[in-house]
């Protein structure tokens, strides 16, 4: 639905000399009606000034520019200019009143449906009244985080994790060779797939789809069939029997077939070997240690293993801190006690959205909207209490990290000269700046909050931790 979260409070304006009359009545708790009544003295000066501007700039056939009689201007533009000035006067008086009374409110004041600009008559200036509904900011107390029940999960770094990470280093920095035949389960096979008949016959014009697979991804029977095969040789396979479940899932997607459809799983494919490659793992020697961990003084395998273990522990420690902050976010956004003018907020969402929305859609997403609004109010209150500030440099750094995260996996040849100019364009975009500001501000609030809690430590496996992460996606 794209529900917008209103700011907890807007600006305030007051003019003690204003002649407008303003009344305020309660509709429901935290939901009020403000009626603004303006007199001719509130808008006639602006009305006359606007007509004079029209007279100076109007291009009307038969008259020189700037010499159009006031009566003609008033006849042509008077009604619309009058309506604009009365509405502007009403809005200005409303905002002045909100500031003078120090009223903090949610979203924007909503003009009531009973308001009727058709009542405005520029030939008979008089008093006009418009009513607005407002939702007031609720009072609340920031939870005592020191008493909150939180958990800091510690992932146990196993020898298996260390061995797997070292193996990845050995392969990533290893030497690529192209053996003549398939012989090792770690052989990398570049292959092409074509739909075919059971005997391998391919219809002319059948599309080829390329992929890259390790021999060990295939089922045991197909591995045996492939061993000894050379480049450009082919075999006929069916996805249902050639792969285990995990590999079959993503390969089905790549080939455009439905893994849940038996006919698709029994479809024959001619798989042609286009390249055989094998990565010779690096030896655990001084040169490898230096290349794998540049800048580290690592001379022995034991030192290398200890360093890898520390890096893995650091990674999981960082993830654990994020998970703790997610728990804190849950406490602040869902468990902070506060009341809301729900009727007003639903009406505000229905009328103020950039896209037309249905009442059903509003109802469906309203609980999530309230959670986000609660987080906005609480985080802003913490920001005020703790004097948290976000600098321009922090906003730029956040944008840079976001871009690097997005483009980091792409091969850009190490050339990032474009980055500064890209960020300059982002800084000129108000929405981009606000988004980066909120990221930095929220991270500061959560970092402060994490320092207030007294979590219980709990050791878990990496699998258990991943399951916990899946439950805390915000």
Describe the fold and architecture.
This protein is 47% helix and 16% strand. It is an alpha+beta fold. It folds into three domains: 21-136, Trigger factor ribosome-binding domain (Alpha-Beta Plaits); 145-156 and 297-470, Trigger factor, C-terminal domain (Trigger factor, domain 2), CATH 1.10.3120.10; 175-280, Roll (Chitinase A, domain 3). The strands form three sheets. Strands 6, 7, 8, 9 and 10 form a five-stranded antiparallel β-sheet that branches. Strands 1-2-4-3 form a four-stranded antiparallel β-sheet. The two termini are 17 Å apart. The relative contact order is 0.13.
Brief digest:
The protein has 474 residues and is an alpha+beta fold. It has 15 helices and eleven strands.
